[in-house]
Amino acid sequence: MPHILIIEDEAAIADTLLYALQSEGFECTWLTLGNKALEQHKQTPADLWILDVGLPDLNGFEVCRQLRRFSEVPVIFLTARDSEIDRVVGLEIGADDYVVKPFSPREVAARVRAILKRTTNTSQKTNSPTTDDKLFSVDESAYTIYLQQQPINLTRHEFNLFRYLLSQPKRVFSREQLLDALGIAVDAGYERNIDSHIKTLRAKIREIDSNLDVIRTHRGFGYSYDPN
C-alpha cells in the first residue's frame, strides 16, 4: 500500500486530502511542519509527498530543496499561488506536479495515482545493466551517469532526461516526449521546463569538461544527444 506524506498546516484541507486518499486505499500521514517531514522521511520514507508551499516554519520550495539532497521521492506542490513562475520554480527544484487551491480532492487522488504509476514504470525501464557510450557510462541500477569516469551530480529528472537522450544518439526528441520520459503529464503545461533542465545539464557536463557540448538544440523541434 503506497504511503503518502501530507505536509499542510490547514486542518480542513488536510482532512479533505486524508479522506480522499484513504478512500482510494492509500496509507497517509499528516504533518504541519516542513522540518518535521524531512526528519520523518529520513526515518520512514514515504512513496509520495503532497507539500504545501506556505508552511509555518519553512517555505515549501526550501523544504523540497533540502529533500532533494537525500531523496528523489515524488512531490506534488499544493499552493494558493497560480503564477507561472511559481510552477517553473517548483518543477526546476524537483517537483513532479503542482496543484492550485481550491482543488478537487478526487483530482489530487488521480494525480497521485498517475505519478506513482509513471515513476514505477520509469524505474522498471531503467532497471537494466550498465550501458556504455563513447563518452558517457550509464549505471541504471545506481541512477548515475559518468563522464570520463567521473559521476555527474544529477537530480532524478536530469538523470531520466539525459538517459533518454543518450538512448538514441542524434534522434531529435520533442519537449513533449522528454516530459513523458520524466514522468510528467504532457498536458500539465510544463514544456518550457525542459529548457531549464537542458541548461542545467549542459552546465554540469561542462563542470567536468569545459569544452564538451553534446546536447543539440533543434529550434522548433526539440533536443538531441550528438556525441560528435
Mean pLDDT: 85
| General shape | elongated
Largest sheet: 5 strands, parallel
Assembly annotation: single chain
List the total number of helices. Answer: 8
Strand order of the largest sheet: 2-1-3-4-5
* Strand and helix order: EHEHEHEHEHEEEEHHHEE
Instruction: Report, as a whole number of angstroms, the end-to-end distance.
Output: 47 Å
Strand runs, count: 11
Contiguous low-pLDDT stretches (5 residues minimum) are 125-131
Structural class: alpha/beta
Determine the strand fraction and express it as a percent band.
Answer: 15-25%
How much helix, percentage-wise, in residues?
40-55%
Q: Radius of gyration over alpha carbons?
A: 18 Å
Structure in words:
The protein has 228 residues and is α/β, with parallel strands linked by helices. Helix content is 43%, strand content 19%. It has 8 helices and 11 strands. The chain has helices at residues 11-23, 34-43, 60-67, 84-92, 105-126, 156-167, 175-182, 193-208; strands at residues 3-7, 27-31, 48-52, 75-79, 97-100, 131-132, 136-139, 144-147, 150-151, 215-218, 222-225. The chain has a 5-stranded parallel β-sheet, sandwiched between helices. Strands 6-7-8-9 form a 4-stranded antiparallel β-sheet, with helices on one face.
Which structural traits does this protein have?
228 residues, 8 helices, alpha/beta, elongated, 4-stranded antiparallel sheet, 5-stranded parallel sheet
Give me the secondary-structure topology.
Layout lengths: L2 E5 L3 H13 L3 E5 L2 H10 L4 E5 L7 H8 L7 E5 L4 H9 L4 E4 L4 H22 L4 E2 L3 E4 L4 E4 L2 E2 L4 H12 L7 H8 L10 H16 L6 E4 L3 E4 L3
Parallel strand pairs: 1-2, 1-3, 3-4, 4-5
Antiparallel strand pairs: 6-7, 7-8, 8-9, 10-11
